[in-house]
Amino acid sequence: TPANAPARLYAPTVQGDAPTFNAVMAFDARRGRRQVHAYGAGVIAEEHLFVPRPGRTRADDGWLLGTVYDVRGGRRGLAVLDARH
């Protein structure tokens, strides 16, 4: 991986046998590690954006903001996740 590669990449992904994106993944390109936050069955996860925390000292210090759709409940929502976890 090039030295100038982003420290972390965030993208929607599929967990289990879901027919659509139902999770968001953080991929550490430098270490080859990934973490997944799964929303569960019946929830569609859309693209999440990284918002850095003011004064941050780590590349992953901030939040992921993304929209989700609960198919069963017929509701949309905004998810705010701690990007470090």
Overview of this protein structure:
It is built from no helices and six strands. It has 85 residues and is an all-beta fold. The mean pLDDT is 89. The two termini are 23 Å apart. The chain has a three-stranded antiparallel β-sheet with strand order 1-2-3, with no helix packed on it. The chain has a three-stranded antiparallel β-sheet with strand order 4-5-6, with no helix packed on it.
Query: By helix and strand content, what is the structural category?
Result: mainly beta
Strand content: over 45%
* Number of β-strand runs: 6
Strand order of the largest sheet: 1-2-3
Helix content: under 10%
- Reading the helices and strands in chain order gives EEEEEE
Radius of gyration: 14 Å
Query: What is the overall number of helices?
Result: 0
Mean pLDDT value = 89
Cα distance spanning the termini: 23 Å
Largest sheet: 3 strands, antiparallel
Contiguous low-pLDDT stretches (5 residues minimum) are: none
Provide the descriptors you would attach to this structure in a database record:
85 residues, flat, mainly beta, 53% strand, single chain, 0% helix, 3-stranded antiparallel beta sheet
Write the layout of secondary structure elements.
Layout: E1 8-13, E2 23-28, E3 33-38, E4 43-52, E5 62-70, E6 75-82
Antiparallel strand pairs: 1-2, 2-3, 4-5, 5-6
Please summarize what this structure is.
With 85 residues, the chain is mainly β. It is 0% helix and 53% strand. The radius of gyration is 14 Å and the shape is flat.
